[in-house]
Amino acid sequence: MRQPGTYSGILSGGVSGKTGPHSLPLARIKKIMKKSSDEVKMISGEAPIVFSKACELFIEELTRRSWMMTMKGKRRTLHKEDVASAVVATDVFDFLVNLVSECAKPEDSSPIKERV
């Protein structure tokens, strides 16, 4: 019989993704993982679950930082410019700078980057 692994708390809903704590579609995550490289042939059932949780945490953190930009602008609706400003202002998100560079307003981003 198989024993619960390190990620058993995450796996409580099963691998199907139809039950449990998974809010992102596991089949879509697995498809993206397979498209990432021709060398990726086999993916365990647990790997997409871990990626799903990582994506959730990433989205939460980027949303928090974007919301801080929204509040700084004294608004109550988060806009794409807030996301762009959060990316530009945070070192951890440097890999996204080229993606959002046309959205970022120079007056919204501070010259000092926040270290995480």
Automatic annotation (TrEMBL):
Nucleus listed as a keyword: yes
Classification via Pfam families: CBFD_NFYB_HMF
Signal peptide as annotated in the record: none
Subcellular location: Nucleus
Disordered: annotated segments: 1-22
Transferase is among the record's keywords: no
Occurrences of domain Transcription factor CBF/NF-Y/archaeal histone (ranges): 23-87
A single GO cellular-component term on record: nucleus
Key words, A-Z: Nucleus
InterPro entries tied to this protein: CBFA_NFYB_domain (IPR003958), Histone-fold (IPR009072), Transcr_DNA_Rep_Reg (IPR050568)
Protein known as: Transcription factor CBF/NF-Y/archaeal histone domain-containing protein
